[in-house]
Amino acid sequence: MKTYLLLVFWTLFALPLTAQLIPDPYLLKEGHQGLDLIYEMKFDAAEAHLAGLARAYPEHPGPPFLRALNRWWQTYISMSTRAYYDFIEGQLDESMSRNEALEEAPGRHKEYVFFQFMAHALEARLFAYRGEWFSAVNAARKLVSPMKASLKYVGTEPEFYMLAGLYHYYVASYHEFYPVIRPFLSFFPDGDKEKGLAEMVQAANTTSIAQVEAGFFLGTIYLDEIGQPGKGLKQTQFLATRYPSNTKFELEYARALVKAGKYAQGEARLQAMRDRYISQPGFGTRNINSLESTTTSHLMIQVYHYLARVRLYGQQDFEGARFFLDQSDHMAKLAAVDESIYLTGNVYLRGLIADEQGEREAARKAYRRVLDMEANETYKTLAKAGLSRPLTLAD
After folding, report:
1. Which of 20, 24, 116, 337 could form a disulfide with 146 if both were Cys (CB 3.0 to 4.6 A apart)?
2. What are the boundaries of each domain within the chain?
3. Is the pTM of the predicted complex or chain greater than 0.85?
4. Residue 287 in contact with residue 81, Cβ under 8 Å?
5. Tens of pLDDT, residues 63-91
6. Closest to 265 (Cα-Cα) out of 222, 217, 306
7. What is the pLDDT of residues 320-330, one digit of tens each?
8. C-alpha radius of gyration, the chain, whole number
């Protein structure tokens, strides 16, 4: 539930900048260059570039926010990498401190609202990663004012279409699927899933840097929320093609291929990631984190999970699937990941394999475990069905 709670406030992975939102052309150009370095996962180069920009613009909230975002991306692909937690928090504080001057500045309110929302959103996510849930909820509640203010700017910039879209979709989704957090969501205006999707599509189809973020979230929603892998494939392919060195975008594209039933293409991309991973010293005996590589043990949890899906659904190779499920679980141990939807998925797939092989009691044992683990509604529904009857690959 904690993971789902913070997803409501998880906004962009990078800051979209437009000439209207940021009037200084040099800051705009250099900000774009910094964003490209972040997306290319050249984290140290991005930090050097953005630190210089922060010195050149000592009063603007954008550069420190981007510096926080850069190290957040590095943390995101390797959850056990805690080296930059304090740095990220410090840069967010600096960004919000600088942003105060924009609130009453003539013609700058839109800019103020945007940075205020973004800083508190990333702050909430950071506290969640730390396990500081009271602080995370408090930061999330601070989103109410800038969120309401941002809605009046929808239609003026692609960025605000995206913010409103994410907000409208996720608030409605969590009201629908996770009633336990409805009292908390009462702090926020009502959501609207269809409206939210339409707003994100508008942002994704508008030529601006916002296409990257909108495409990422649309891809995730299409793949994991509403089951439209064809549309997810289009969005994830765009990102993977534009930023081929971004391993998260590469993984999302591979996931989309597998979910769309394009097993051979998906397997090729997943195997390429695996080949890079196993070429690193100590790959099977230690945690490889984002301080040394962008192909991390944490990402490999998902890579191996989807390789198992390829073997199971695409080739009906039960032993091959079990091998990759074991590898996925091993990556979780190396990366110190105790709870993950992919670990739950691994258990479910073992139950499915057992049912396919006529091992009914082993299957039922796996399904019971699924119900005791972190699981989405799909896995819970399947596991409950599996306790009453044998499941097949068609399920």
Report:
1. 116
2. 2-226, 254-388
3. yes
4. no
5. 999 999 999 999 999 987 889 999 999 99
6. 306
7. 999 999 999 99
8. 21
φ/ψ of residue 114, rounded to 5? -65, -50
Q: Which CATH architecture has domain 254-388?
A: Alpha Horseshoe (1.25)
Q: For residues 217 and 109, what is the distance between their CA atoms, to the nearest angstrom?
A: 26
Integer Cα distance of 15 and 97 in angstroms: 18
Label residues 190-217 b or e (16+ Cβ within 10 Å = b): ebbbeebbebbbbbbebebbbbbbbbbb
**Type of residue at 21:** L
Q: Which amino acid is at 337?
A: V
Of the candidates 75, 84, 67, 77, the residue with the CA atom closest to the CA atom of residue 31: 67
Residue in the structure block whose two tokens are 């630190």: 51
Contacts of 258 (CB under 8 A, 6+ apart): 266, 267, 270, 306, 309, 310, 314
